[in-house]
């Protein structure tokens, strides 16, 4: 029997979703867990992974609206005869309005990417109280754990096994994914071409404050990355998916021109945006950007994600800067307060695992840097312990390099004054 | 062997331990009297009072007529007016005849008279099945009385405890109901000499373990311990709690154990439904220990029928060691 692939319910109010892109072509094989298709709802867009393996057939055309729970394709086994589409396939109505005779969304609509299950699909996850308590304390989403007890019940041992596997796997497997647009905040005042800022991994929009003090003449717009600051904890399948999300947010700002500033991971994203939106970029500033080489301090990334107390966060934060004294205990406590939500930490762990698997920068944007057309500069501290500043030397001649002695991974904070004055003269 | 060691090694049967407790009480406190049917010359239905009548005379070891209601009424009155009666039922089943005196008088009179009186009464109930005495002589009715505020209800499971709890009951200003399993009467065990008390309302951990908790009462404690010995080599480390008192129940000992093991089996001989195990289960479910449960709670109690006369059926209607083994294995191995 072929396996039904259905339109998943990815948010509470969703009645239908539009198939935007198929990642697998008709007749091709897909493996469980691989991206299968992208959907778009009124509120969000997301990639749906294959819940099973098989050969894809009878996929509804891209652009079709499909009510949740209805099939969008079928997965056949190797050698299985492919006949007419099985009954129940949604009609092919590209961009059609909602299917009229569709019943209201079922309360027990399946989870994203699930193949249709028996009617108990909407039941709460079976889990013992002890397992729930362990999961709660460990910041693990109980719904994402496969239970080994009777009827699939999650027991304490299942959670403990997951916790034992370490934070990266933990986060990747188990944070509670959310949907919705990224958080955008704006400064008051300023005129002319706005400055759009994209913060780095495990940071958030508020980290720009020291630099912003020097850029008050321009409107400043800050984007919080998924799973950071006030943004929803989206499931991020790849750097490309993250870039797509941030670029959509940037596009939604609807700016004719913008000065784009990105730090670290935000630098890689800013470069990615500039690569495809070159005409809209008045200038590009990359501060200790990711994406220009494989090296990165994976231990610091996972250490920051893992830290659940100021005592464990502090040492890693101090590695971000050259002069450790600027990371005071009260600063660490404040930073930890912003990271108190275990689900946020789990989401960031998952993201770190996706973007920096095994402590390596998986994305290579050097080609994008080479073909960059807007005016661009790279700012780096020569005592950066997270990403080697020498990655900057990859830049083509038309990109300005500003390398600061005695500064670590956070020039915008460690020498905000100098960086600010520098930017002020050009932005 | 010095005198000290000899004292520690001294063993008495459960019945002898009760008799020794009553002997100590009769000797040390003039207010203590024994009452009950055939407890004098006959020595009691289960020979617990033995020859105490010869030592203390019929004024203090008093045979009562064959009327549980009448005898219990006299005992309540004696307690209200300054004596400390120990009233023996021949079978706990006959408490049904005396319920008016136990439930409506002994338990309530302190409340109804604004605390101006108390009823320092001890009642002893030979209880439980296993003797082939059938439906009207084999019940475990402790939960009936456990449901009554104003009473204390204990189920000592060892000779040492029954002596200590009887002496503790005599020091208690309010009525204490002691349920003595008939199968235990011949059980021997270490019993300290002289006067001592075992606290009412305090459970005992008979065997420490980490994998699952069995809370048992009375004879079931011994069945649970036997099961635990079998389960140990199988890698299932059982903690056995002897509840000892069902009213007031020792909440903290039970909850602490469940927090540790995450799994709970309640084993009791009374009818399963609305029984002692229901109370233990609810107590855990209502507490913070709920968060530590890693499997459903299991109750092993008496079947939903009167105790049959046929010996095989009699065994089948109350929990036995194999039942406990099954439940423990199922729990520990994640089948339930």
From TrEMBL, chain A:
Protein family according to the UniProt entry: Belongs to the 2-oxoacid dehydrogenase family.
Keyword Transferase attributed: yes
Gene Ontology biological process terms in this record: pyruvate decarboxylation to acetyl-CoA
CDD domains per UniProt: lipoyl_domain
Occurrences of domain Lipoyl-binding (ranges): 2-79
Keyword Transferase: yes
Needed cofactors: (R)-lipoate
Name of the protein in its database record: Pyruvate dehydrogenase E2 component (Dihydrolipoamide acetyltransferase)
Entry's Gene Ontology cellular component terms: pyruvate dehydrogenase complex
GO molecular function ontology, one term from the record: acyltransferase activity
InterPro entries hit by this protein: 2-oxoA_DH_lipoyl-BS (IPR003016), AB_hydrolase_1 (IPR000073), AB_hydrolase_fold (IPR029058), Biotin_lipoyl (IPR000089), E2/Pdx1 (IPR045257), E3-bd_dom_sf (IPR036625), PSBD (IPR004167), Single_hybrid_motif (IPR011053)
Keywords for the protein's UniProt record, in alphabetical order: Lipoyl, Pyruvate, Transferase
Ranges where the Peripheral subunit-binding (PSBD) domain occurs: 126-163
PROSITE patterns, A to Z: BIOTINYL_LIPOYL (PS50968), LIPOYL (PS00189), PSBD (PS51826)
Chain intervals with Basic and acidic residues compositional bias: 98-126
Residue span of region Disordered: 83-134
Gene3D superfamilies: 2.40.50.100, alpha/beta hydrolase, E3-binding domain
TrEMBL record, chain B:
SUPFAM superfamilies, A to Z: Thiamin diphosphate-binding fold (THDP-binding) (SSF52518), TK C-terminal domain-like (SSF52922)
The keyword Thylakoid is annotated on this UniProt entry: no
PANTHER family linked: PYRUVATE DEHYDROGENASE E1 COMPONENT BETA SUBUNIT, PYRUVATE DEHYDROGENASE E1 COMPONENT SUBUNIT BETA
Domain named Transketolase-like pyrimidine-binding: residues: 12-187
Designated name of the protein: Pyruvate dehydrogenase E1 component beta subunit
Organism: Albidovulum denitrificans
Alphabetically ordered keywords of this record: Oxidoreductase, Pyruvate, Thiamine pyrophosphate
Cofactor(s) required for function per UniProt: thiamine diphosphate
Keyword hit for Oxidoreductase: yes
GO function terms (MF aspect): oxidoreductase activity
């Amino acid at each position: 029997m072929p396996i039904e692939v259905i339109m998943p319910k990815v948010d509470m109010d969703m009645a239908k979703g539009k198939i935007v892109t198929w990642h697998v072509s008709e007749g091709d094989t897909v493996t469980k867990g691989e991206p299968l298709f992208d959907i778009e709802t009124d509120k969000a867009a997301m990639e749906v992974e294959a819940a099973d393996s098989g050969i894809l057939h009878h996929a509804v055309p891209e652009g079709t609206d499909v009510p949740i729970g209805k099939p969008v394709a079928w997965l056949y086994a190797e050698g299985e005869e492919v006949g007419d589409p099985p009954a129940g396939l949604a009609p092919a109505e590209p961009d059609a309005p909602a299917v009229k005779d569709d019943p209201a969304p079922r309360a027990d609509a399946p989870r994203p990417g699930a193949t249709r299950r028996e009617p108990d699909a909407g039941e709460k996850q079976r889990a013992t109280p002890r397992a729930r308590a362990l999961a709660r304390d460990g910041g693990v989403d109980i719904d994402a754990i496969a239970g080994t007890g009777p009827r699939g019940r999650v027991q304490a041992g299942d959670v403990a096994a997951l916790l034992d596997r370490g934070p990266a796997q933990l986060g990747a497997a188990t944070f509670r994914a959310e949907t919705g647009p990224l958080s955008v905040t704006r400064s008051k005042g300023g005129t002319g071409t706005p400055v759009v800022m994209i913060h780095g991994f495990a940071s958030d929009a508020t980290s720009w404050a020291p630099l912003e003090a020097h850029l008050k003449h321009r409107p400043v717009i800050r984007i919080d990355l998924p799973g950071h600051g006030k943004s929803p904890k989206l499931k991020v399948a790849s750097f490309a998916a993250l870039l797509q999300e941030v670029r959509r947010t940037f596009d939604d700002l609807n700016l004719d021109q913008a000065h784009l500033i990105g730090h670290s991971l935000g630098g890689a994203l800013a470069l990615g945006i500039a690569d495809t939106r070159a005409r809209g970029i008045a200038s590009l500033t990359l501060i200790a950007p990711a994406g220009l080489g494989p090296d990165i301090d994976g231990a610091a990334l996972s250490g920051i994600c893992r830290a659940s107390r100021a005592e464990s966060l502090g040492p890693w934060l101090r590695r971000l800067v050259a002069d450790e004294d600027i990371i005071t205990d009260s600063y660490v406590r404040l930073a930890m307060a912003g990271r108190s939500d275990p689900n946020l930490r789990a989401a960031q762990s998952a993201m770190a695992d996706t973007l920096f698997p095994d402590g390596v920068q998986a994305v290579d944007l050097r080609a994008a840097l080479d073909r960059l057309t807007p005016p661009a500069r790279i700012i780096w501290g020569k005592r950066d312990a997270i990403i080697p500043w020498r990655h900057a030397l990859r830049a083509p001649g038309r990109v300005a390099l500003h390398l600061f002695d005695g500064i670590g991974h956070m020039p915008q904070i460690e020498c905000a004054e100098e960086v600010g004055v520098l930017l002020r003269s050009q932005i | 062997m010095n005198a000290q060691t000899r004292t520690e090694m001294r063993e008495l049967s459960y019945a002898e331990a009760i008799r020794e407790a009553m002997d100590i009480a009769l000797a040390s406190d003039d207010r203590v009297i024994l009452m009950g049917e055939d407890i004098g010359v006959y020595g009691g239905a289960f020979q617990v009072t033995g020859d105490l009548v010869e030592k203390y005379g019929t004024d203090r070891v008093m045979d009562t007529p064959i009327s549980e209601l009448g005898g219990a009424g006299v005992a309540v009155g004696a307690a209200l007016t300054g004596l400390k009666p120990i009233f023996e039922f021949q079978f706990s089943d006959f408490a049904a005849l005396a319920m008016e005196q136990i439930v409506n008088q002994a338990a309530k009179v302190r409340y109804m008279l604004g605390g101006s009186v108390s009823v320092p009464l001890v009642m002893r109930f030979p209880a439980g099945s296993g003797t082939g005495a059938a439906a009207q002589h084999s019940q475990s009715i402790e939960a009936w009385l456990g449901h009554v505020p104003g009473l204390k209800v204990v189920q000592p499971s060892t000779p040492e405890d029954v002596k200590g709890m009887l002496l503790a009951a005599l020091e208690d200003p309010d009525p204490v109901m002691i349920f003595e399993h008939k199968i235990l009467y011949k059980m021997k065990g270490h019993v300290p000499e002289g006067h001592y008390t075992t606290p009412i309302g305090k459970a005992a951990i008979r065997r420490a373990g980490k994998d699952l908790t069995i809370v048992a009462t009375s004879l079931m404690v011994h069945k649970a311990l036997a099961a635990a010995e079998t389960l140990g080599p199988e890698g299932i480390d059982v903690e056995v709690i002897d509840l000892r008192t069902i009213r007031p129940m020792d909440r903290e000992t039970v909850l602490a154990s469940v927090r540790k093991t995450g799994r709970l089996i309640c084993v009791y001989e009374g009818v399963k439904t609305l029984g002692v195990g229901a109370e233990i289960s609810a107590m855990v479910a209502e507490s913070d220990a709920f968060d530590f449960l890693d499997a459903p709670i299991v109750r092993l109690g008496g079947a939903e029928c009167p105790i049959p006369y046929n010996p095989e059926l009699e065994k089948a209607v109350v929990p036995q060691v194999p039942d406990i083994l099954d439940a423990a294995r199922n729990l520990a191995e994640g089948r339930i």
